[in-house]
Amino acid sequence: MFRSRVMSVPLGLLCRCKAREVQRASKILRLVTASPVQTVRHFNGVNEPHQQYEVSHAHPRVLITGSLGQLGTGLAKVLSRYGRNNVIMSDILKAPRQTQESGPYLFADILDFKKLQDLIVSYNIDWIIHFSALLSAVGENNVPLAMRVNIEGLHNVLELAKQYKLKIFVPSTIGAFGPDSPRNPTPDLCIQRPRTIYGVSKVHAELMGEYYFYKFGLDFRSLRFPGVISADTHPGGGTTDYAVQIFHDALKTGEFDCYLREDTMLPMMYIDDCLRSIVEFMETPSERLTMRTYNVSAMSFTPAEIADAVRKYVPNLAVTYKPDKRQSIADSWPMRFDDSNARRDWGWKHHMEIDDLCRAMFDYLTPIYKDTSNKMKEQVA
Ligand SMILES: NC(=O)c1ccc[n+]([C@@H]2O[C@H](COP(=O)([O-])OP(=O)(O)OC[C@H]3O[C@@H](n4cnc5c(N)ncnc54)[C@H](O)[C@@H]3O)[C@@H](O)[C@H]2O)c1
């Protein structure tokens, strides 16, 4: 029966499918061969000689914490190139059916050390991608919880990564800088005195990760991301969320209330660039990295500039500016990010500028809102 089904597929289609598979496989192969295989490192006298670990594997088994958020959902899809069952998603939320069907998904509270330990052992994990966090605006509304999730949670994963010799990625943010940092541009190394619990917890994560690297040889890696813009998930309560919401409101109502001033410039990045940066960074041989935490960026814009770009698609978009308490957070953050070290050390390059990201957002969202409004019209009729 199986044979007859295969036989009934037209030969041309079969060839096209095969060609696509070959293309995809060679892309994966390029990515994989670019990664170091089983390198063992010693650290110039800072670490004890017995502190060794495997830097990477051809097909790492990856645990993503906080994987149902804006970044985790997309990254799990990208990493499925390592094998469907090699990406273990985890969070404290009930996952949509689609996620549950796409590969392993497990409940894991970042504060539950034993549960995480069990998961790492049972699934033979090689890398942790640590996304669980409360973001800037949410964190300010619940400081005790933000301290627990962002700081205690980090301690758990760092310690586990050390014990089990895992490679670990912990994202940082433009929010790790503060009003005393140079803001235009902000280099990798400068004064960091953030004024949000989110920012403080991220500086803590950067320093703790680097400490574990120097002290224990842990392969800790971190990228400081700007505001990340995506269409397929809703943002998790950060100060840059307006740059996602404007697309939804433009399509839904043609009106947008912006909680930042029109001239507030912040660095931003489209999700595809963000996810690609993580994969490329994680696959970079350790010896090419001169730092453990890098700025990465793509573009900077103000609410007025993104509104103008959106008006190319929704010409009558009406925007009102009503700054709220997130304005003071934004005013303390970088306006432009200097990511020249990432570009030099591991070849970071962004692909998407403001017009590209508008096109991508409208390509994704327009059919969805059209469909909804058609359904509503049908219901009214
Ligand atoms: N999205 C951005 O613009 C941006 C920018 C810079 C850095 N980052 C960083 O990237 C990471 C992911 O960001 P995101 O936008 O996907 O965040 P998000 O808020 O969308 O997702 C975070 C996830 O963490 C989970 N979580 C909360 N408490 C938890 C707990 N106790 N145990 C386990 N999971 C828990 C949440 O359920 C949520 O799914 C965060 O560390 C964030 O600081 C994000």
- Low-pLDDT runs: 1-56
Which compounds are bound in this model? nicotinamide-adenine-dinucleotide
Strand content: 5-15%
Number of helices: 14
Query: What overall form do the CA principal axes indicate?
Result: globular
- Radius of gyration, rounded? 22 Å
SSE class = alpha/beta
Q: In percent, how helical is the residue content? A: 40-55%
Description of the structure:
By secondary structure, the chain is α/β, with parallel strands linked by helices. The protein has 14 helices and 13 strands. It has helices spanning 2-8, 11-33, 70-79, 97-102, 113-122, 136-141, 143-163, 197-216, 242-252, 271-283, 303-311, 326-331, 340-346, 354-380, and strands spanning 62-65, 87-91, 105-107, 127-130, 167-169, 172-173, 220-225, 227-229, 255-258, 266-270, 293-295, 299-301, 318-321. Strands 1, 2, 3, 4, 5, 6, 7 and 11 form an 8-stranded parallel beta sheet that branches. It has a 3-stranded mixed beta sheet with strand order 8-10-12. Strands 9-13 form a two-stranded parallel sheet. Helix 3 crosses helix 10 (271-283), helix 7 (143-163) runs parallel beside helix 8 and helix 9 runs parallel beside helix 11. The longest helix is centred in the last third of the chain and has 27 residues, at 354-380. The protein is globular and about 60 Å long. The protein starts with a helix and ends with a helix. Nicotinamide-adenine-dinucleotide binds next to helix 3 and strand 8.
